[in-house]
Amino acid sequence: MSEPDWRIRSGGLADRGLLSSFDCANPAVEFEVEVGQFIRTQLIDWACAPGAAGDDPRLLLALIRATGELFGVAAHERARFQGSDGNVFNATKLEVAAVATPWQGYRFHTGERTSDVLMSAVMTDIYARVPPRDSRVFGIVHKDNHRSIALCRRYGLVEEMSSPDPNYLRLVTAHRPPLPGS
Amino acid sequence: MTLFSSLNVESARLARLGNPDEAARVARAATELEAGPEFAKLQQIMSDLSGYDAQQVVDGVLPEDAPAELAEALKAVARRTEQWRTSELALTALAEVIAGRIAEVHNGYVVLVRVDGPATMVPRWMAVAAQRDKVGSLLALVMDRLDDGRAVVEAVPAIDVDDSTDTGRFTPFGRGDPRVLSITEEDERLLAGEPQPLRILVPVLIEE
Lengths: 182, 208
Known about the structure:
The complex is a heterodimer.
Chain A (H helix, E strand, L loop, with lengths): L5 E5 L5 H5 L9 H12 L1 H6 L9 E7 L5 E13 L5 E12 L14 H15 L8 E6 L3 H9 L4 E2 L7 E5 L2 E2 L6
Chain B lengths: L6 H10 L3 H15 L2 H11 L3 H8 L9 H20 L1 H6 E11 L3 E6 L4 E5 H6 L8 E10 L2 E8 L27 H7 L2 E2 L10 E2 L1
Antiparallel strand pairs in B: 1-2, 1-4, 2-3, 4-5
């Protein structure tokens, strides 16, 4: 079986320069610009913050195998929702996932979409974490970011939690209802 | 319109607790502050507001159509006031201030997360009175100790004077905004139960 046209690797401090030129935004769309700015200027520090190591932050880079071009960036970490009466819900926060502008909507010759490669990488990475991550995954998406909302839904983030802000949706993976008496 | 510095309250507190010299010093500081350019700017902006809106500002609520310079003027006064407060060591021993951001809102209480991390529960009616009962709102508790077993606690609206960390605008990124992890009781019902297995559409190998 031949290798795919792409490869995924984890990122770190040495990738600051690589991320600094990542472009995923239409300059006319504010919420896209916000994503691009975060990736270029803050994501490395977010991923490598010493105080956050307990949350197991992960940075994933999607690259074109032949050229090393960066076509996608994603990040996630452990999170905990604190409910009333001390209830804790472990979860994973999808911090960001973005495909570079020239690669948006692109399919590799084997048929995979760039966005599917990136999101599958996120889910694979979450699944493989040791100690295990909770498979409850959530992400916060601008309400007008229809492409990202559709992508989230394709990967099972189909339930809508309360909104942290009127302009944003908080999407989370579905749950099986608790068994009676449990 | 005449505005007075909250340092006058501190001065009165000092006088009540038998510190007349310090009370006089803080009262002079209040007078100096009120005569300064920050107060003059704030008074000028407030004078252009309607009486209702001006009262709202005094109560800690910025009207939706308030001029942008109003928030800046309030921050400037707050910074100068805080400078005076920290220079008067006696004040820190008189009243402890717990300031933070509301992270959770429940039927009977809110959870206030301090800037340096620890959280505390506050009766919701106190947060309502300070008009700071929404997730993300900034609230301060001023605790005036009466004796070893008693204290008067006042909930007051707070503002963040650090422009570099808070523009008042929500961002989904980073770890600083408690709204990201704040949940309602309806969310709790949604999250109860077993999460569905993760969906992976393309086999991926991740290189470390």
